[in-house]
């Protein structure tokens, strides 16, 4: 139980940087959707560009983050050598990527459809290269169990990024009208979406300089033998990572290529991307859990009873994921104000995106069986199958049904890989999950959500009150079954008094 408490504590702290940080970034969603209208397709450009960089981030880290955790926890390896070898490897490849991107900037920009603004591609190429390199010191902070420093470094990017976006999209237009001389020498009101990339670049550079302590004070050693072993271990992770991230972003990358009308594609992609942001609560929780769970799993691998811990962690992950699902879907009347009204037509995809995110989180939990037995090739198989299905369904459905096909394709793809990973995992590395208990939570969630949708209440206050009752039913069941009040220290002390 102590192990789960440690996991919960680290998840909560990592959640501060992930959940609170992304919540602050939510401030940018209404800002972008107001300043970049749905009809302009500007938010579609942001959605497309950040999806491409997400894929590149996986390619440029090529599984070394997981590889670092695997080898740094091996007794026969020197942690300092593992760290420096990982830094040199990822840093060198990121530098080569940057140079090649700048050398072939024009043809790359033309292919992606940004020939008129090649600087968009240049800025994001530098950003993704720096982000890839920074994954290593971030992983080092997790290994050293320094979640506070980890969170602080995340905020060092998040807060300046918000301030710069407010400066470019709110302050500069106002100053241009009232005091034009102050900003007219550098600010172009027609540059629009470009300022989002400028802000990102500036903040990423600032964050890089803040890693001085993690990048100095030790001898850099590149161990070729160790590096080869890490690459053999990480290559399948790279494949499954590419397939995994494609599962998340491929629809947004290929979407513009599935329409003859580029403007129409950007408009629809902008609506889909903005609506998906409402479901980001689930992604934030999954990411926070992942940050804590990866070092936790590899650290507990040599301990007895570890399978019981993994089973319990899966159950609690699903419980809190379902709480997040109900929290968003039952109060969608409130959460929809995160985006501008012009994007509300896409809110029908929110529940689909959230279910897909839950399945993705479950798949992540299941994925550790092949990582722990050093059979990461299985992950490549699963993710490859899921990616193929998602791409196939997008190609078939998107031209006919539009962006809602993207959401359904993702849900189906994640469902397939989750089922496959569970079935084969139970044969290779059996873990006794509480399927009956988990099933009851899923069934209760489905009943409550369906009730909220099919019982129509026109008055918004009464509707929210009714849905609060539904949410309370789920919370009461959770407390009764798995979180009895007597086990909560603060409540327990109060009862004893």
UniProtKB/TrEMBL annotation:
Major location (coarse): membrane
Transmembrane region(s): 12-29, 49-69, 81-108, 120-143, 155-179, 191-212, 232-250, 270-293, 313-332, 344-366, 378-396, 402-425, 437-455, 461-479
A Pfam entry, by short name: Polysacc_synt
Membrane topology: Multi-pass membrane protein
Presence of the UniProt keyword Transmembrane in the record: yes
UniProt-annotated location(s): Cell membrane
Organism domain of life: Bacteria
Keyword terms of this UniProt record: Cell membrane, Membrane, Transmembrane, Transmembrane helix
Keyword Transmembrane helix: yes
Protein name, entry field: Polysaccharide biosynthesis protein
Native source organism of the sequence: Bacteroides sedimenti
């Amino acid at each position: 139980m102590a192990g789960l408490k440690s996991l919960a504590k680290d998840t909560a702290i990592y959640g501060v940087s992930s959940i609170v940080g992304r919540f602050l970034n939510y401030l940018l969603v209404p800002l972008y959707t107001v300043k970049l209208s749905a009809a302009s397709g500007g938010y579609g450009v942001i959605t497309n560009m950040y999806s491409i960089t997400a894929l590149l981030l996986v390619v440029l880290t090529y599984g070394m983050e997981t590889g670092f955790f695997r080898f740094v926890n091996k007794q026969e390896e020197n942690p300092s050598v593992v760290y420096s070898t990982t830094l040199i490897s990822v840093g060198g490849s990121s530098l080569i990527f940057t140079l090649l991107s700048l050398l072939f900037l024009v043809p790359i920009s033309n292919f992606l459809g940004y020939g008129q603004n090649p600087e968009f591609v240049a800025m994001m190429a530098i950003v993704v290269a720096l982000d890839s390199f920074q994954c290593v010191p971030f992983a080092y902070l997790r290994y050293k169990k320094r979640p506070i420093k980890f969170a602080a470094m995340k905020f060092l990017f998040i807060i300046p990024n918000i301030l710069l976006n407010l400066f470019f999209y709110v302050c500069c237009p106002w100053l241009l009208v009232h005091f034009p001389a102050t900003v007219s020498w550098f600010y172009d009101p027609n540059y629009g979406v470009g300022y989002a990339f400028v802000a990102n670049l500036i903040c990423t550079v600032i964050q890089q300089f803040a890693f001085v302590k993690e990048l100095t004070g030790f001898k850099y050693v590149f161990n070729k033998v160790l590096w080869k072993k890490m690459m053999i271990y990480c290559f399948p992770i790279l494949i499954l990572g590419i397939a995994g991230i494609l599962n998340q972003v491929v629809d947004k990358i290929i979407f513009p290529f599935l329409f003859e009308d580029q403007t129409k594609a950007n408009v629809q992609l902008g609506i889909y991307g903005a609506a998906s942001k409402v479901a980001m609560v689930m992604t934030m929780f999954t990411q926070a859990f992942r940050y804590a769970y990866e070092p936790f799993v590899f650290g507990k691998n040599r301990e007895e009873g570890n399978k019981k811990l993994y089973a319990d962690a899966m159950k609690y992950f699903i419980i809190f994921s379902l709480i997040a699902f109900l929290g968003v879907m039952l109060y969608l009347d409130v959460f929809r104000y995160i985006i501008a009204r012009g994007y509300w037509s896409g809110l029908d995809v929110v529940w689909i995106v959230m279910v897909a995110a839950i399945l993705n989180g479950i798949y992540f939990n299941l994925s550790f069986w092949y990582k722990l037995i050093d059979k990461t090739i299985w992950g490549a198989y699963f993710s490859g199958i899921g990616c193929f299905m998602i791409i196939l369904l997008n190609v078939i459905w998107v031209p006919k049904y539009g962006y809602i096909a993207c959401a359904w394709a993702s849900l189906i793809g994640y469902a397939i890989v989750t089922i496959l990973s569970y079935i084969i995992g139970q044969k290779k590395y059996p873990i006794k999950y509480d399927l009956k208990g988990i099933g009851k939570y899923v069934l209760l969630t489905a009943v409550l959500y369906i009730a909220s949708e099919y019982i129509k209440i026109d008055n918004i206050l009464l509707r929210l009150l009714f849905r609060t009752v539904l949410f309370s039913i789920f919370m009461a069941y959770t407390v009764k079954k798995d979180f009895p009040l007597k086990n909560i220290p603060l409540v327990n002390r109060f009862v004893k008094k």
